[in-house]
Amino acid sequence: MKIDGTHYRTIWRGEGEASVVVIDQTQLPFRFATRTLNRWQDAEEAIRTMVVRGAPCIGATAAHGMCLALAEDASDEMLETAAKGLKAARPTAINLMWAVDEMLAAVRNRPRGERLEAAWARAAEICDADVEICRRIGAHGLKLIEQAAARKKAGERVNILTHCNAGWLACVDWGTALAPIYMAHDKGLDVHVWVDETRPRNQGAALTAFELGGHGVPHTIVADNAGGHLMQAGLVDLCIVGTDRTAANGDVANKIGTYLKALAAHDNDVPFYVALPYTTIDWTLPKGVGAIPIEDRSGEEVTHLTGRTADGRIETVQVSAPGSAAGNPAFDVTPARLVTALVTERGVCPASAEGLLDLYPERRG
Ligand SMILES: CSC[C@H]1O[C@H](OP(=O)(O)O)[C@H](O)[C@@H]1O
Question: One of this protein's Pfam families, by short name (predicted)?
Fold first, then answer.
């Protein structure tokens, strides 16, 4: 997508033989900065510290991390070390493990001298495929927004609530949950987005709002706890969110707070959609609740906030009572029964094992 008129992906090859450049998402929305990754450990750190985040973006970064490892040392030992280290960076987004395994499959049976070129090629394929997959998710999701628009009175806008950031910053381009919104806006539909701020890392207030503002999509940032009230007041026509790992039965792991939004949507008969690429489906998990690993992050992300002072400085301040403990589970799992439908690159399906297998018949045992 574009930032100040210039098109960007979230990741691209740097100068020279072995460097990768990523947008440093910890600096947004106040500063556009990039970070150059030269070693696989740089990619691991960027994922772990959320310089890059969002399941597909994490996968793309890990894929390039494997390239950086091979540029240093194309041995089997390096392959295994880098794969293990990258996979351990964050536990919930399955795209991370998927991408590393894809890279291993692309190079491990090749002679050492051929591995690096094959790795760069596979990493580029993963990125290019993600762009096209997200574009297709957008096209399928657009139909849902058009259906919602058809139910509105003339002149009424479609109000959509989203949680966290599942836009182009979470992917390589386009995004998952936000792709249909961009397409609806570009098609001239009158859409407005309620943007959950998404405590504690504020991916909504900082990243989704940055994205939507940059694209000219009307939006309003709201406190995470406002969503239920907005739905109860009839101010939300549909919810659409991303996911970091979806189990084979349609249970979805997503940013903490998603489950609560799904409960409110269910209670108010608001359609609740989850947008995802096939790379986010974990076919090995028959169910997600109680099974998808939930990342526990530092309590300091809850007790402290980073923002811009009135005179433009970026500062971190404590917002909690000193000495109090803080818990920070970074994801929750929404049971499939609360999900109206899954929006994938192959189409829209019920959040169920059968629904997914109808779209991905090659996965039938
Ligand atoms: C399209 S995946 C986006 C997904 O990733 C976010 O988590 P994080 O920012 O911690 O990487 C969030 O769960 C989004 O829905």
Answer: IF-2B
Cβ neighbours of residue 313 closer than 8 Å, sequence gap 6 or more: none
Instruction: Round to whole Å and give the CA distance between 339 and 316.
Output: 36
Residue with tokens 């539909």: 189
What is the per-residue pLDDT across 17-40, written as a single tens digit (0 to 9) for each?
899 999 999 999 999 999 999 999
Do residues 338 and 352 lie in contact, with contact meaning Cβ atoms separated by under 8 Å?
no
Q: What is the ipTM of this complex?
A: 0.99
Q: Which residues of 322-349 are buried (b: 16+ CB within 10 A; e: fewer)?
A: eeeeeebebbbbbbbebbbbbbbbbebb
* Residue of 23, 254, 332, 334 best suited for mutating to test ligand 1, as the one with most atoms within 8 Å of CB: 254
The gap between the terminal CA atoms of the chain, to the nearest Å, is 39
Calpha distance 249→275 (Å, rounded)? 15
Q: Indicate the angle between helix axes 94-107 and 76-87, nearest 10 degrees.
A: 170
Span 202-225, pLDDT tens digits: 999 999 999 999 999 999 999 999
H, E, C per residue of 237-285: CEEEECCCEEECCCCEEEECCHHHHHHHHHHCCCCEEEECCHHHEECCC
Torsion of CA 346, 352, 358, 359, to 10 degrees: 10
Domains for the chain: give ranges and CATH numbers. 2-129 (1.20.120.420), 143-363 (3.40.50.10470)
Question: What value, to the nearest 5°, has the Cα angle with vertex 228 and ends 222 and 231?
Answer: 95
Residue nearest to atom 6 of ligand 1 (CA): 54
Catalytic, 251? Answer no
Task: Say how many residues make up the chain.
Answer: 365
**Ligand 1 and 61: CB distance under 6 A:** no
The verdict on the CB of residue 122 being under 6 Å from ligand 1 is no
Chain CA centroid to CA 162, Å: 12
Residues 53, 11 contacting (CB under 8 angstroms): no
Spacing, Cα 57 to ligand 1 middle (Å): 9
